[in-house]
Amino acid sequence: MKLNIVAIRVWLITSGLILISLVATSLFYAQFYSQQIKQNYLNDYESFIHNVETLSESNPQYIMTYLQEANVIHAKLNFAIRSEGQDVYNEEEWDLQFSDDIYQRVISNPNLVEKIVSGEETQIRSDSDPEYESKIPYIFHVKHINFQGEQLTFYAYADLSFIAEVERTVFYALSLLILFSVFLSYAYYLYLRRHISEPINAMTNIAFDYARDDFSHQLPVSGRDDLSELAMAMNKMGHSLETNRTVVRQEKELLSHIMTSIDTGILYYDSDQSLILSNPAGDLFLTQYQVEKGNFSTKDDYIDIELNLKEAVETKKFSQFNIEMVEFYYEVTILPLIEDDTLEIRGILVSTKDLTHEHRLDKMRVDFINNISHELRTPLVMVQGYSEAIIDDIAETIDEKKEMAQIISDESQRMNRMVNEMLDLSRMEAGFIEIEKDSLNLNRYLSTLVSRFNKMASEVDVRLALDVPEKIIELPIDKDKMDQVFVNLINNAIRHTGMTDKSAKTVTLRLFEDENLEEVIMEVRDTGTGIPKEDVPYIFDRFFKADKSRKNYSDNASGTGIGLSVVQSIIEAHGGRLSVESTLGKGSTFIIHLPIDQNSTSTFDSF
Q1: Could you give the 3-state DSSP secondary structure of residue 597?
Q2: Tens digits of per-residue pLDDT, 388-417?
Q3: pLDDT tens, 43-52?
Q4: Residue 386, C-beta contacts closer than 8 angstroms, at least 6 positions apart
Q5: What is the C-alpha to C-alpha distance for residues 196 and 11, in angstroms, rounded to an integer?
Q6: CA angle, 572 as apex, 567 and 575 as ends, to 5°?
Q7: Taking a C-beta distance cutoff of 8 angstroms, is the pair 272, 306 a contact?
Q8: Coil, helix or strand for 471?
C-alpha cells in the first residue's frame, strides 16, 4: 500500500480522527460519566444506610417491624440482623436474612465473612478503601444495636452490580460501534479510491503519456465536480499540446529541410565553442577547412576560425571575413547570440557562403578584361600603324598600299569577330537567341567544314579527318548558328593540336546516329594538349580559359574565353546538349547530342 496515494492519506486521516473521537468518548464515559454514576449511587445508598442505622438506634422496634419489607422493596439494598451465637453460615438462624443472591455475594467474599465473624463494627465502601477494591462496587456496614435488652448485630449491604452490567452493555455497544465504524471506514476507503485515487492515477498516467508525446488517450469525464473539470482541462491541454507538437514538428521539419537544402553552411556552437548543430553545407565547409588547416596552418595568411570564435565570445561582436582555400572561396560570418536579460553568450552562429563560383567568375572576368584588352590592342595598333603609313605615304607603290589595306581589313574582321562573340553571348544569356531551322544534310555539311579548315590545319601540320556513315542523316538546324559552333570547336582543336610536338597531329569530325538514345551525335576529336582535369567542369563558363597563353597562330588568336559558352547556348537552343571528354596530354573530344526528328531524317544508299 502506497502511503503517498491521496485516497489512502485522506482515508487514514479521516479514520484517525474518527478513532480518536471514539477513544475520547469512551475515555470520557469510563473516567467521568461512569465514575460519576457510581459515586452518586454509592453516596445515595450510603446515606440511606446511615439513616437506617440512626433509626435503628432511636427506634429498634420500628426497624425490626419494617426492615424485612424494605429488603423486598429495594432489591439492591439489603439488611440483615443476627444475634450472638447464631451460625454465620446458616442463614436460616439469622433474625433477619439477606436475600439469597445478596447472601451468596457476602458469603463468597472472605473479607466480609471475616468482619461478620469478628463482630466488629465496620463501614466498607469498595471505591474508597483500596483494601476492599472490587470490580463490582458495594457498601457493607456492621453495627451493634440493642433491642429489648438483647445485643444484636445490624448488617447493611448495597449491591451495585447493575452498574457493571450497564458498563458491559456500553462496552458491547462501543465494540459494535467500532466494528461498524471500521466497516464504514472501509466503504469510505473504497469510495475515495474509486472517486479520487483512480481518477488521479488516470490523470497521472495521461500526464506521463503527454510527457512521452503520446496524445492518443483521453480522460473520461462524468459529473461536474472538481476532478471532472480537471479531467476536462487535461483533455483540452492534451489537444492543445498535440496541436502545438504538430506545428513544432512541421516547423522543425521545415527548418531541417531548409537547413539541408540551402547552400549556405550553418554551424552552431555553444558558449564553450563546442559544435552543437550543423547542416550538410556546413559539414562540407568544415571538411574542406580541416584539409586546408592540415596543409596551410603554418602560413602567415592562414585564418584560424577557432581564434575568431574565441574572439567573438570575448568581445561579443559580429565579424565577417573571407577564407580563400586552394580550390574554394568562402565568406564566413560569426554572430554571437546574447541573452537580452543577462547579456551572456548562449551560443555562436556561424554561416558560411560558398563563393567559389562567383570568385572564379570574378577572376575569369578580370582575366577576360586583360585578355580582351590585349586582343583588341594588337589589331588596333596594327590598324593605326598601317593607316598612318598609308596617310604619310610611307607605302609608295600600289601593291604596298593594297597589302597594308588588306592587313587593316583582316585586323578589323578579327576585332569584329570578337565583338560579335560578346554580343552573341549577351543576347543568348538574355534569352534573345533566334533559331531558324532548315533541313540540312549533315554528311555533306561536315565534309564542307573539313575542306574549309584544311588550309588552316595544314599551316600547323594538323591533318583533318572525316568519319561519317554511308547513310545520309538530315536534321532541321540553323546552319549559321551551327557554323559558329563548329568554327569555335574546330579552331580550338586545330590550335591546341598544333601546339603539340606529336608526330601525328589529327583533328577528326565524326557523325553517327544512336538509335537507342534517339540522338544524332557529332564529335570534334583532337590529339592536342588536352584539358586539365580540374578545369573540365568550368570550360563552358563565361570568360573561362583553360589556356592562359596569348600566342597567336596564323589569323587565329588565343580567344576571349566566351566561345565555348556561346557554343553551349546554341546547342541547348536546338534542344541538345554539349559534353566533353579530355585527358591532359592526349587530347579532347567535344560531343554534340541533338535529338532526332523522325520526320526530317532520311537515309540514302550512298553519299
Answers
A1: coil
A2: 888 877 777 788 888 888 888 878 877 887
A3: 888 888 888 8
A4: 404, 405, 407, 408
A5: 11
A6: 140
A7: no
A8: coil
Other CB atoms within a 10 A radius of the CB of residue 508 amount to 18
Separation between Cα atoms, residue 560 and residue 495, nearest integer Å: 14
Backbone φ and ψ for 554, nearest 5 degrees, come out as: 55, -125
CA distances in angstroms from 63 to 44, 58, 367, listed in the order given: 19, 10, 156
Q: Which residues contact 379 (CB under 8 A, 6 or more apart)?
A: 411, 412, 414, 415
Torsion of Cα atoms, 322 then 325 then 328 then 332, to 10°? -20
Q: Which residues pair with 338 in a beta bridge?
A: 345
> 10 Å Cβ neighbour count for 591?
15
CB 491: neighbour CB atoms within 10 A?
A: 17
Query: Which burial class, exposed, middle or buried, applies to 250 when counting CB atoms under 10 A from its CB (0-12, 13-18, 19+)?
Result: exposed
CA distance to 30, 213, 249, 390, 395, per residue, from 242 (Å): 64, 8, 10, 91, 95
Residue with cell 586583360: 370
Q: In the block, which residue shows the cell 556561424?
A: 350
Report how far residue 522's alpha carbon sits from residue 485's, in angstroms, rounded to the nearest whole number: 11
Mean pLDDT taken over the chain: 80
- Cα 75 → chain centroid: 91
Rounded distance, CA 498 to CA 504, Å?
10
- CA 240 to chain centroid: 17
Q: How many residues does the chain have?
A: 607
Cβ 291 vs Cβ 326: under 8 Å: no
Q: How far apart are CA 499 and CA 162, in angstroms?
A: 143
Residue located via cell numbers 429488603: 71
Question: What is the rounded CA–CA span in Å between residue 607 and residue 602?
Answer: 12
Question: pTM here?
Answer: 0.42
Q: In terms of Cα–Cα distance, which of 65, 73, 49 is closest to 154?
A: 49
